[in-house]
Design goal:
Strand content of chain B: 35-45%
Largest sheet of chain B: 5 strands, antiparallel
Radius of gyration of chain B: 12 Å
Distance between the termini of chain B: 31 Å
Number of helices of chain B: 1
Number of helices of chain A: 5
Number of strands of chain A: 12
Strand order of the largest sheet of chain B: 1-4-5-6-7
Shape of chain A: globular
Order of helices and strands of chain A: EEEEEHEEHEHEEHEHE
Helix content of chain A: 10-25%
Shape of chain B: globular
Bound molecules: flavin-adenine dinucleotide, zinc ion
Largest sheet of chain A: 6 strands, antiparallel
Helix content of chain B: under 10%
Structural class of chain A: alpha/beta
Oligomer: heterodimer
Largest interface: A-B, 25 and 21 residues
Chain lengths: 250, 86
């Protein structure tokens, strides 16, 4: 087994913050240095664990925003004002701080560039994070399969990765459609309103093309979109879902 | 209470079973449906993790961690696959 690192049991490791990027007023990306990172697949996540001085621990999952090809592991976290963990990660963490992290985990909600089906990605709010990894992976691997992202956010202000998506869109089979649910008319030239049956019919990929479909975001959003996709004729076995929790729909 | 799915407990399942479990399937002892564990309906706010069948809502699995030791009850499954390697 010379040269191969056998992966042991999944354990917590110390991750050091090496970079912070404000994506919007309530969302930021955190760049980590991990001494013992085995590599990841696009769509996987990690568990983050925080320990208070009195020993109390809180654990949450965060999708990996960086591509397998990227040099660092990046998470993108949205602050929930009444949340226990996200306000700390978004507002308090500083460069040089350490958190405990374990992963990568999750083998179901992943996309490999070796897969030759067209891909439809449907995101609500921070549900776009694992798709950023998949889109970067698509570009880095030089894939040419059609990959279409439908991304719903509340307003232009809450859009994350906007500049990057503008650069990626239209290249090598990547097609990105953003819809804003609460933006004022006149201030946004693109799509407006929820990702509903009409929107999916107009902008999704036709079921006849048998796309592999990934849906991610708040729990209620994921359930509504997945049910609508099945109604439209997409095979349930072609739809992969990941629920981030919460009840709202972005 | 906020609901997640089996993906949310991929880390916990990996630590308990020693491998990737969200791509393994389990058969519900109550209604007989077989699904990937990624599709379980998961509640994490409880003292541990409670996972229910997405078809009939029966409790399939309960995991409670106490001082680093996990107690796992999988008696809701009629069958459960072994973990797969990543
Ligand atoms: C597999 C997986 C990947 C995830 N990836 C990301 C990611 O990349 N970026 C990210 O920002 N979050 C992600 N999440 C959500 C994240 O794990 C936390 O649930 C979120 O940060 C809230 O934690 P908190 O401690 O701040 O809030 P809590 O204290 O846990 O909750 C505060 C309140 O918000 C509600 N709530 C919980 N989760 C959500 C949610 N996601 N949306 C809306 N309301 C919610 C709760 O019901 C509660 O009322 C992911 C979740 C899963 C399961
Ligand atoms: Zn059942």
């Amino acid at each position: 087994m010379a040269g191969t690192a056998l992966r042991g049991r999944l354990t917590w490791q110390q991750a050091t913050v090496t970079g912070l990027v404000a994506e919007t007023s309530n969302t930021r990306s955190i760049v980590f240095d991990l001494p013992d990172w085995p590599g990841h697949r696009a769509g996987q996540h990690v568990d983050v664990r925080l320990t208070a001085e009195d020993g109390y621990q809180a654990e949450r999952s965060y999708s990996i925003a960086s591509a397998p090809e990227d040099p660092h592991v990046v998470l993108t976290v949205e602050r929930l004002d009444d949340g226990e963990v996200s306000p700390y990660l978004v507002d308090e963490l500083r460069i040089g701080d350490e958190v405990e992290l374990r992963g990568p985990v999750g083998g179901h909600f992943v996309w490999e560039s070796t897969c030759d089906s067209p891909v439809l990605l449907v995101a609500g709010g921070s549900g776009v994070v694992p798709f950023r990894s998949m889109l970067r992976h698509h570009a880095a691997a030089g894939s040419t399969v059609p990959m279409r992202l439908l991304y719903s956010a509340r307003s232009r202000e809450t859009l994350i990765y906007a500049d990057e998506f503008t650069r990626l869109g239209g290249r090598g089979g990547i097609d990105i459609r953003v819809t804003l649910t609460r933006e004022n008319p006149g201030t946004w030239p693109g799509e407006r309103g929820r990702i509903d049956r009409d929107f999916l019919t107009r902008t999704g990929l036709p079921p006849a093309e048998e796309p592999l479909v990934y849906v991610c975001g708040p729990t209620a959003f994921v359930e509504t979109v997945a049910n609508t996709l099945v109604d439209l004729g997409h095979g349930p076995g072609r739809i992969r879902t990941e629920r981030f929790g919460g009840t709202g729909t972005p | 209470m906020t609901t997640f799915d089996g993906n949310a407990i991929a880390g916990t399942l990996n630590a308990v079973f020693g491998g990737e479990m969200t791509t393994a399937s389990g058969t519900c002892a109550s209604c007989g449906a077989t699904e990937l564990l990624a599709q379980l309906r998961v509640y994490r706010d409880a003292p541990g993790v409670v996972a229910r069948c997405e078809h009939c809502d029966a409790i399939l699995m309960v995991i409670v961690e106490k001082r680093g030791i996990a107690c796992v009850d999988v008696s809701g499954f009629a069958a459960l696959e072994e973990p797969t390697q990543l």
